[in-house]
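Q: Got a minute? One more chain.
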Amino acid sequence: MSSAAPMTMMDFFRKSVGVWFTQRTVHHFDMVADESGESKLHVQVVELDDPRIQKVCEPQGVNPAIAAGGASFMWQPHEEGQEPNPDQAAVLVDVPDDETGRSGRLLRNQGYVEKIPVVSRYWFGQDGILTIDTDYDNNQGQERCWFVTDDFRVRVSTVRMMNGVYLMTYCSERRCVSDSDLNAMIQFNQSRAALDPV
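A: Always. Here it is, folded:
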């Protein structure tokens, strides 16, 4: 069942909170080893009063007062049992262009492609698809992401070098159900079954 698409970055971050199971297909246009696989993505909202907002804004020369908030993204291999290290999280700060929040800048303490602080441009289309363009020192990346349902989303990205496209990635992401949510669903279904004897 689909729902309304988020149309601001902070709404997108809030809708993304949780743990996501990611299935990733990567197509390289040269002889690099296959990076396709499975992983988990942990997303948390970073509120304006969090010191990480200022820490990301200041090196980019951006006044933290104009930020709308942010989010942290942590990755881990799917089969790994322990929680990811929050010190290795990528922190993104939303700096919208205007009060609509439909477009703006994303400040990151580290990029996806090159592990350096970076500023991206983003915008939401009328269809709710989020597009993020990032210029790195040696290449250019574009990512598009959208929710199919509240608990399933798709990400497609390309990385372009000066001599053409370097790689394309397709990710399907399914929200993981927490133990507490799973127990609540079990109890709900058990109570329904008790009220509806066969």
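A: The chain is about 15% helix and 45% strand.
Q: Perfect, thanks.
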